[in-house]
């Protein structure tokens, strides 16, 4: 099963913690977003492998933008 992870609000990508091919466990943080001076961790809900990463540090995201896909 493929999990698509989307931005929940307008924010900027503060830190990217994974790359394509990274093995992740359910609940792992993939990236950290920054919005209104708050750091917001973006977590995966399933264990698997990061298939694609669609963001880079410093990028500004809109609500609904695709951040990553994880193969479970």
Automatic annotation (TrEMBL):
It comes from the Bacteria. Keywords: Biotin. CDD domains: biotinyl_domain (cd06850). It holds the Pfam family Biotin_lipoyl. PROSITE patterns: BIOTINYL_LIPOYL (PS50968). InterPro entries: Biotin_Carboxyl_Carrier/Decarb, Biotin_lipoyl, Single_hybrid_motif. Residues 1-71 form the Lipoyl-binding domain. SUPFAM superfamilies: Single hybrid motif. This is Biotin/lipoyl attachment domain-containing protein. It comes from Geodermatophilus obscurus (strain ATCC 25078 / DSM 43160 / JCM 3152 / CCUG 61914 / KCC A-0152 / KCTC 9177 / NBRC 13315 / NRRL B-3577 / G-20).
């Amino acid at each position: 099963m493929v999990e698509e992870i989307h931005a929940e609000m307008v924010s900027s990508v503060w830190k990217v913690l994974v790359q394509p091919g990274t093995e992740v466990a359910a609940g792992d943080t993939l990236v950290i977003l920054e919005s209104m001076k708050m750091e917001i961790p973006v977590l995966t809900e399933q264990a698997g492998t990061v298939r694609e990463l669609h963001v880079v540090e410093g990028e500004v995201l809109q609500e609904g933008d695709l951040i990553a896909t994880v193969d479970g």
